[in-house]
Automatic annotation (TrEMBL), chain A:
Molecular function terms, GO-annotated: UFM1 conjugating enzyme activity
Active site: C119 (glycyl thioester intermediate)
Name under which the protein is recorded: Ubiquitin-fold modifier-conjugating enzyme 1
UniProt keyword terms in alphabetical order: Ubl conjugation pathway
GO CC annotations, alphabetized: cytoplasm
Record lineage: Eukaryota, Viridiplantae, Streptophyta, Embryophyta, Tracheophyta
UniProtKB/TrEMBL annotation, chain B:
Top-rank lineage group of the source organism: Eukaryota
GO cellular component: cytosol
Keywords from the UniProt entry: ATP-binding, Metal-binding, Nucleotide-binding, Ubl conjugation pathway, Zinc
A Gene Ontology molecular function term of the record: metal ion binding
InterPro entries, A to Z: D-isomer_DH_CS1, ThiF/MoeB/HesA, ThiF_NAD_FAD-bd, Ubiquitin-activating_enz
Organism annotation: Anisodus acutangulus
Record Pfam families: ThiF
GO biological process, alphabetically ordered: protein ufmylation
UniProt-recorded name of the protein: Ubiquitin-like modifier-activating enzyme 5
Entry similarity comment: Belongs to the ubiquitin-activating E1 family. UBA5 subfamily.
Length: 174, 427
């Protein structure tokens, strides 16, 4: 795993791997996969909480489990920056990874495609392809979103592109 | 403009009254005529041309198809007018797709189906086709606006949707199978699908749809560093599908590790995109109108002006089940294919015997090479790619397939799992 920091690597190895290769158009097989997704997400969330590194909330936004919504946050200079998080499970999942969207940051950074989709590193897609179907939603959050927030949020804050919600409140009051 | 021209005419009239020299008067009459001509031209400039019923080969200024129909007169194409029967679906109306759409529109294609979920932005202005005043419009609507002005004969359908989502995919599939325009040979509603998307995920979705529908399609791509690109023909069951082998890219010769990606997702050039769109539509025209040789894979390295070609056979271990079904059908249809090829060969032989008597000795010493021998490099069998082409992604690692156990109990109930995650989320 060239190109990943040791922390990401050790976290990744503790997320349960998935076994069922099925997507949202596969009926009962998708339900089986969905159960594995939940197990991996439960394990990952519990692990983050136990390490005092809780950083996202995610839930299925429809009964089929093909659309997901939640929040993610990042602490920079002791201030917490929180963003809406959403994504669709693509029809070709798990051959292709879901494209994570942070709609509030759309148009604010170059490291983003249209619609607020985050631009993943050159290391992500090869690793995902190599590990199909063992990686799931929990893995894309760990390998995709966590490093993206760590790299981009400090830049966006320091350049003044995004402001902490308390700052926004104070400046509008004054 | 119209008012200004009227003023000019009035001035000329008053000038004419004050002049007595007949040679000056003739000059003023001439000027009068010019102004009237300008006025007529100005009026006609704002109206679009009306639809034409049949493509005419007549060479006159007013015939939009005369230069295209000349292809038929020159013997390049047997029947150019057939182009009006064809439907082409273009997925992704960006730097490549929009230009491809314009080229096909100018060629007089019968019907175009356009798919994109994006809007036109000022950041797109380094590419061709879209204009600054279209910023904010959906790419599909802006394209329909421009294309219908260029050629009102083309039937245009615009689909503003994301094909990778479950709902988007359903609409995509049903639009491809809609046979209202004409039923095609393959039984679907379109003759060819052109993938002009900019990401692997969307390509895999086009691949999925085309494998399921047994729909021939062409793939196109431009690298994120903007200095290489490729086009590829995919015939389900006959050629490798997009999932058969890891995606291929033309190496730009730049080391990925030295490529500076800080602060940017992708670069783009109107030139590279225009070249790739040109190659794609050229291959499309050859495929639809049956002339020349249709390329299976054609790469473009802009830094070295290198154009590698190759062929890829389907992978019998492909992870896509629809691809495996098409492969089986293709093998089963081999006797029919062979018989048809034999009949065709016999026909053309009879024709050539009648036209030119065969010389007993081959005076030019030309050796005839079997088609199979000139095939490009077979990537899957040899495992070796032609120079300058590399895999973009690795193959999935082998892993022991675990039997799907229907475990019972609270740990395997979907609702229970959902509740557990929500409980953690609520904390
Ligand atoms: Zn395949």
């Amino acid at each position: 795993m060239e190109g990943w920091d040791p922390n990401t690597k050790s976290t990744l190895t503790q997320i349960p791997l998935l076994t069922i290769k099925s997507g949202p158009r596969d009926g009962a097989l998708w339900t089986q996969r969905l159960k594995e997704e939940y197990k991996a997400l439960i394990a990952y969330t519990s692990m983050n909480k136990s390490k005092d590194n809780d950083w996202f909330r995610i839930s299925a936004a429809n009964p089929e489990g093909t659309r997901w919504k939640g929040k993610c946050w990042y602490v920079h200079n002791l201030l917490k920056y929180e963003f809406d998080l959403q994504f669709d499970i693509p029809v070709t999942y798990p051959a292709t990874a879901p494209e994570l969207e942070l709609p509030e940051l759309d148009g604010k950074t170059e490291k983003m495609y249209r619609g607020g989709k985050i631009c993943l590193t050159v290391h992500f897609k090869p690793l995902w392809a190599k590990n199909c179907p063992r990686f799931g939603i929990a893995h894309v959050l760990c390998l995709g979103l966590a490093p993206w927030l760590a790299a981009e949020i400090p830049v966006l804050v320091d350049s003044g592109t995004i402001k902490h919600k308390d700052d926004v409140a104070t400046s509008s009051e004054s | 403009m119209e008012v200004e021209l009227k003023e000019l005419l009035n001035d000329l009239q008053s000038l004419k009254k004050s002049i007595s020299d007949p040679s000056d008067l003739a000059l003023i009459d001439k000027m009068h005529l010019h102004v009237e001509n300008i006025a007529t031209l100005e009026k006609s400039g704002t109206t679009c041309r009306s639809k034409v019923k049949d493509m005419s080969a007549e060479v006159v200024d007013s015939n939009p198809y005369s230069r295209l129909m000349a292809l038929q007169r020159m013997g390049i194409v047997d029947n150019y007018e057939r182009i009006r029967e064809f439907s082409v679906a273009i997925v992704g109306i960006g730097g490549v797709g929009s230009v491809a759409a314009e080229m096909l529109t100018r060629c007089g294609i019968g019907r175009l189906l356009l798919y994109d979920y994006d809007k036109v932005e000022l950041a797109n202005m380094n590419r061709l086709f879209f204009r600054p005043e279209q910023v904010g419009m959906t790419k599909t609507d802006a394209a329909v606006q421009t294309l219908s002005e260029i050629n009102p004969d083309v039937v245009l359908e615009s689909y503003t949707l994301n094909i990778t989502t479950v709902e988007g995919f359903d609409t995509f599939m049903s639009s491809l199978t809609n046979k209202s325009f004409r039923t095609t040979k393959s039984g679907s509603g379109v003759d060819l699908v052109l993938s002009c998307v900019d990401n692997y995920e969307a390509r895999m979705v086009v691949n999925q749809a085309c494998n399921e529908l047994n729909q021939t399609w062409m793939e196109s791509g431009v690298s994120e560093d903007a200095v290489s690109g490729h086009i590829q023909l995919l015939i389900p069951g006959e050629t490798a599908c997009f999932a058969c082998v890891p995606p291929l890219v033309v190496a730009s010769g730049i080391d990925e590790r030295t490529l500076k990606r800080e602060g940017v997702c992708a670069a783009s050039l109107p030139t590279t995109m225009g070249v790739v769109a040109g190659l794609l539509v050229q291959n499309t025209l050859k495929y639809l109108l049956k002339f020349g040789q249709v390329s299976r894979y054609l790469g473009y390295n802009a830094l070295k002006d290198y154009f590698p070609t190759m062929e890829m056979k389907p992978n019998s271990q492909c992870s896509n089940t629809a691809c495996l079904e098409r492969q089986k059908e293709y093998i089963l249809a081999k006797p029919t294919r062979d018989a048809a090829a034999k009949a065709k060969a016999a026909d053309s032989e009879a024709l050539s015997v009648a036209e030119n008597p065969v010389h007993a000795d081959n005076e030019w010493n030309i050796s005839v090479v079997d088609d199979d021998e000139v095939d490009g490099a077979d990537v899957r069998n040899s495992g070796v790619l032609p120079e300058g082409i590399v895999h973009e992604l690795p193959v999935a690692d082998e892993y022991p397939k675990q039997p799907i156990t229907e475990a019972v109990g609270p740990a395997d109930d979907l609702e229970e799992l959902r509740r557990q995650l929500e409980a953690l989320n609520a904390d």
